[in-house]
Amino acid sequence: MNPGPPEPSPPPEREPSSQRRNGSPHLLAALPPALSDAPVSGPARKNGFMNQPNAQAQVQHPQPSVGSIAAHRPHTVAANVSDLEPDLDADLDEYEDLVQDGVQLPQGRFLDRERSWLAFNERVLELAEDPNTPLLERAKFLAIFASNLDEFFMVRVAGLKRRIATGVATRSASGLQPREVLEMIWARSRELMARHAACYQEDVAPQLAEEGIHLVRWSELSEKEQARLFTLFRHQIFPVLTPLAVDPAHPFPYISGLSLNLAVVVRNPVSGHRHFARVKVPPLLSRFLEASPNRFVPIEDVIAAHLEELFPGMEVLEHHTFRLTRNEDLEVEEDDAENLLQALEKELMRRRFGPPVRLEVEESIDRYVLDLLVRELKISEAEVYPLPGPLDLTGLFGIGALDRPELKFPKFIAGTHRDLAEVESASPPDIFAALRERDVLLHHPYDSFSTSVQAFLEQAATDPDVLAIKQTLYRTSGDSPIVDALIDAAESGKQVLVLVEIKARFDEQANIKWARKLEESGCHVVYGLVGLKTHCKLSLVVRQEGDTLRRYSHVGTGNYHPKTARLYEDLGLLTADPQVGADLSDLFNRLSGYSRRETYRRLLVAPKSLRDGLIARINKEVQHHRAGRPAHVRIKVNSMVDEALIDALYRASQAGVPVDVWVRGICAVRPGVPGLSENIRVRSVLGRFLEHSRVFGFGNGGEPEVWIGSADMMHRNLDRRIEALVRITDPAHRSALNRLFETGMSDTTSSWHLGPDGEWTRHATDAEGQPLRNVQEMLIDARRRRRGTATP
Question: Which residues take part in binding ATP (predicted)?
């Protein structure tokens, strides 16, 4: 594994708050240097602004077309895009002034969220660099890293630049000025992109070649292979290419975000004049083309080898590949939008023209051509990333999909949850009958989504005794059986309410399409509350049973997306509990009507009660600990950023309460700081499945309390979204979730450990060099043993 980057310099010194106000200076002295700060230039420390227009651009999702390897970049394997959404940092001064029990918490106690996200993507890169990861999975992790970074620049960097340009950016909770954060991102991402390219060039590609999978350039092809690709070029590529000249009569063309392009310099043999032209690589064609069995070449190489076909009569002097990333965030003023659906459709069209935030070029690019691109694209030199070709390694998703099972993780097919079908059979389980017996706690992908949640809704759609179905949809697949079931239910006369969150980032267009399809079938479709995204994962089925109505519910941590359910780790509760049913009825009434209910029986709901409810429970653990009763706090989330909640964890730690945080991505907590957080441990698990569930556990004086739900600990989740957590009441389910925590946090389990300096350290082997247990493989093996198919 490559060595880590050099230690960045600490931030500029400021007068400690403990010297300005009454506080506890010993805590401040205990804090380590802030490694979240990269070196910044002198001018940057003056917080200079960057003048970039505020516009939008169109995100592209290429689909398979030509050749055998597709350039598809599915959300199913990339990091959740929602982790990257703008999440305005709270004013740090509000927390610097926070005094409780006569003790003031120190400055510098929050890690920088952008640095933390980059550290998350570095952990993804470490999986690609790990020789113990199966080879095609390593290629896939390289693609995930690239896709993640694309979205980070499109959303986080673009949003930061926009706030700087408009003068609304403020000091982050980590204490860094906006310009300092931006320069840290440039420096850190440059290091990671260099490591990423080196991993592909020097490690993964050569090992793939040893396994008979060759990723080659045009010059490495045989004459026969070149002839075959020439035929492919003439018939399937050439017709869709459009060379665009740049001269006084032809302005510099618009370069769309994430598109791959060739910058071409040609010469007129008659006049001797040199000209610049741009050729866009069609995004709907395959990223890698198969020249012969298991020999693949980048599509831009095929185009570059036949440029004379595009510029007949001209001399092609040189060509260079480049790729631009643009701001692809959306802004919709909901308060002024009479029809949110129409407003969003208009904004999607406008997004195509967002300002640039990153320019990737092949490192061999001519300086004249680079200067022209920088000038015409109005991008700074700091945003230019020279890299060895080929660019855009998201195309490795296609390579990772090759049918070579011996180079992948062993195949795992989830079975039906044992509480839904004690014995596997060809007939579908009767979900309603099972739920009348007991609650069912699902753990995907170890428990089948199709025979649980999907079957629950499909059974509800066809059951003549079901009167109504109410459902939230945040993201779903293009061929969703969930949508089909809801349409079937509506067409059979059932009352169907579907809350479609059409503002789910990068899925807006797909969600608009399905919203219209649901409306046309007779479903009542609503788009949530103005100013709030509906992110909760809820299903409610109302069924006539004799003289009474019974409500069946599902509350989950993940989207109703059958494809991602096979790749994302999530939890869900299926229950016929009357309290949960009543809570969901009340919540759906709030989402579809004018209800102002803020308290529930077994739910915590954002934005009103969720943060306060969790903080109250954390504070209660302090009371239990002081009274000598069992106390602990256990939190598993994707992101941990909210300062108020983190401060509650710090105070619990100061009181002696053990706090465990299991986080996949961003984490602003500094664990292990004497006097502040020595009782806090932070772990991260990455692997074949994307850890996505959210769980909150409390010792509660010996009567453990556990909650699951949709909310991450970020400002936007707690303040600007409808989120829901449900309390788990079955003692066996609580015990199972606590055992999951103990396994994930154990020192004998493979994971990354966060240090007080903000650095993550991977712990994958024990003192003797033997591999530590992998929590995901342990859960897979447990399911296989249950079905009698475990490996001996």
Answer: 148, 568, 664, 692
